[in-house]
Amino acid sequence: xxxxxxxxxxxxxxATRGIGKGIAIGLGEAGATIYITGRSLNTNTIxxxxxxxTLLETKQEVEKVGGICxxxxxxxxxxxxxxxxxxxxxxxxxxxxxxxVNNVFSGVGAIANAYGQPFWKNTPSLWDAIxxxxxxxxxxxxVFAARLMSQRQQxxxxxxxxxxxxxxxxxxxxxxxxxxxxxxxxDMAVELKPDNIxxxxxxxGIVGTEHMLEFAEGFNNxxxxxxxxxxxxxxYNWETPLLTGRVIASLLEQKNTISLTGKVQIxxxxxxxxxxxxxxxxxxxxxxxxxxxxxxxxxxxRKYAWLIPDFKIPWLILQWGMLQSPKI
Length: 328
Prior knowledge:
By secondary structure, this protein is of the alpha/beta class. The chain is built from twelve helices and seven strands.
């Protein structure tokens, strides 16, 4: 892997596991210096859920591929801790911050517990569990990142969002939060553009994170699986977290990302554009490609997916169709 990001400084929030860990490793492959955050520094401070992952484990993986990784244990629900994080980066890196990846998200457990239930049958605190360390944290981190980036008149802010901002997936609180992430990225772009800072919303596909694999395992144990859940059960067209990392690394390498500012960027489509492959040389297709949509609807066609044109449904049609549909 070419070390095109030597000398670049990045911050990835929520990087003990999942997409955040994959992003940190992808940036490390390209030689960046990466600050990573999370609540669990090592196995002695691991969080209370059933899926493990620590900052030191991510640091080891990043360094294994040639990156410089600086783990910072913080709670993103505490604004003062976040403020101190950016003060530390300013001091240690002489004010340089080239990339912020807004990824931290603590709502996976709450989503799993509430899955299949209407919002009113859950406590109102479900909203905060999904959108506090998530949407709100992205706004707070972006405030402090923009203050650093504006001093150097450059920077890239990537906010990890989801297709759930366009169509119903995991419930009302999740969908509204993801749609708000997209709007946050777009509106920040307007206010950041005069300072040459790019803000984009990043949409991975279906990513095989530790939590997602556990979630899918639950479907494997169901006898009466619903048709819309087949993709989760069969891992069809899944991406690994590393693909998002490699795509964001390639974005940071680009000379003029300001031309992309304010827009949604789909990981699979950028991977195709930049000729990036996932682990084991695979390149999953976009979720708006006929090559995904048709075999997803008719599982028997999956073995012939390569014969289906990789035609992407235009955004206007996609938005109209998905917003009318009760489920993706």
